[in-house]
Amino acid sequence: MLILAIETSCDETSAAVVKDGVEVLSNPIATQTEFHQKYGGIVPEIAARKHVELISPIIQEALDKANITFKDIDAVAVTYGPGLIGSLIVGVCAAKAIAWTQKIPLIGVNHLEGHIYANLLISNFQFPISNLFPFLCLLVSGGHTMIVHVKGHGNYETLGRTRDDAAGEAFDKVARVLGLGYPGGPLIDKLAKEGNPNSIPFKHPMIEGEYAYDFSFSGIKTAVVNHVKSLQSTVNSVQKKNIAASFQKVVVETLVEKLIKAAKDKNVQTVSIAGGVSANSELREYAQKRADEEKLKAMIPPFEYCTDNAAMIGGAAYYKFKRKDFSPLSLKPLASLRL
């Protein structure tokens, strides 16, 4: 089964052809980073206009790389939320047009669900994919930080979520304070490798009791701002490296320790990470290390499936197709959409 998938929830324009839910035949991604860098963040209007320019060429590129045409497609899938409404409209309209002209099913996919299914694109499993369930997924990105109990295809329970800043948002804001630029996550990850992660005693923002699986990163962000102000001078390169390393260590440990706690409490044997922040090298290493220590299986998707991409949408759509969970041509994009 071949599914053409489209992803335009934020500032990446992507299309992919996915075979049988796991084999990625193509997955071109056009990034807009250079157009947003000077503003220090994503400008929704610019993002939407760029999607309009790029959507048709990207879809054609996906088909060409997969060596197929529209006639070979069994269904078209698209992210319909959550995300920037202007960006979502472009992808949804393109998918509707393809579904209508080719007379094939339209499958709307929740962007968050797509990130979870990026884990199933790791490789060809040597056992039925159904054997993976249940597992826990730490979903971390610029807009979301949550722990999801994945009980089966389309069956999710959100155990915890951020109460304020998402982890990716905190990375961007700290990078801005340090004058590193945008996007902040990769820049802090690179800089942190040269710093001492134990040089500054930032506190772990842990929440206990009934909301033990929830997150809060506004405190650590404020702690970094206050630390920079306390230096009373221009922050030199060594200080920047130490701040980046200390900040990243606290965030990574907080994320992973809550995931491990949830796995032990729920007696779940498999944990995974997903979302743009899952490309962070320290997060990937620490998640694998703690999973090994706790005798848990860890699923960590390849880098190319961590950030926004259409392949993960196609992967999720395959299982919706099997359930005949199709969307009407009246499908509306939704800026806010819970899992």
TrEMBL record:
It holds the Pfam family TsaD. Substrate binds at residues 139-143, 172, 185, 189, 280. It comes from the Bacteria. It catalyses: L-threonylcarbamoyladenylate + adenosine(37) in tRNA = N(6)-L-threonylcarbamoyladenosine(37) in tRNA + AMP + H(+). Its main location: cytoplasm. Its EC number is 2.3.1.234. The keyword Phosphoprotein does not apply. It is found in: Cytoplasm. It is an enzyme of class 2 (transferase). NCBIfam families: gcp_kae1, T6A_TsaD_YgjD. Required for the formation of a threonylcarbamoyl group on adenosine at position 37 (t(6)A37) in tRNAs that read codons beginning with adenine. Is involved in the transfer of the threonylcarbamoyl moiety of threonylcarbamoyl-AMP (TC-AMP) to the N6 group of A37, together with TsaE and TsaB. TsaD likely plays a direct catalytic role in this reaction. This is tRNA N6-adenosine threonylcarbamoyltransferase. It comes from candidate division WOR-1 bacterium RIFOXYB2_FULL_37_13.
